[in-house]
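Each lists sequence, tokenised fold; shown next:
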Amino acid sequence: MGKRDNRVAYMNPIAMARWRGPTQSVGPTIQDYLNRPRPTWEEVKKQLENKKRGSKALAEFEEKMNENWKKELEKSRQKLLSGNESSSKKKERKRKKKKKSCRSSSPSSSSDSSSSSSDSEDEEKKQGKKRKKKKNRSYKSSQSSAYESESESKESIKKKKKSKDETAKEKDVRSLSKKRKKSYPDDDVSSESLSESDYEEDVQAKKKRRCEEREQAKEKVKKKKKKQHKKHSKKKKKKSGPSHKSR
């Protein structure tokens, strides 16, 4: 089975348009649009004047609407004013009633009311003082508990440090006792017989030895540097010598 031949012949569009001939125009052309009837300058002026004047019907409609809106606004204003007046009158009546009731009440009742009000104020003050005392106590107790916890933590840290120092001392004493036993097998030296003074003397001797070793190492380094410097200077002299002779 061979492949299908899907090729299409090329058609020149310009040649095809010439072959078809002139196309029939549908609708107005550009020339028709340019040659349309146009109004004169005087007619244009009249149209503009009419637009500025506006239509009478629209003006009448706007006037009627404005009148209606004005009437509605007046009604709403009257309602609001009447409501405010009625509320003010009611408040005045209530005030007058309260004044009459206060005047009609006897002086005994006024004294009782004043005493009751003073008692209530005293009770409120007492309750406020009690609340403040409770708050202060709770704050102090919280502070004391925090301080105690801090002190306990510090004491525990100190105890741990002391125990570590004691264990280190015991280890040093045991090591010294073992060394002495090895050096002096005939003498029975026990760890208990070693005193603190011996321990301190041993520590100081160790420190002195370390200082002496450091000083010796420093002196060795200085001597090496001097030797290297001398060798370098000799090499320079040897190099500079033959150059002068050649000149």
About this structure: Helices lie at 13-20, 30-34, 41-53, 56-104, 107-183, 196-246. The chain has a mean pLDDT of 78.
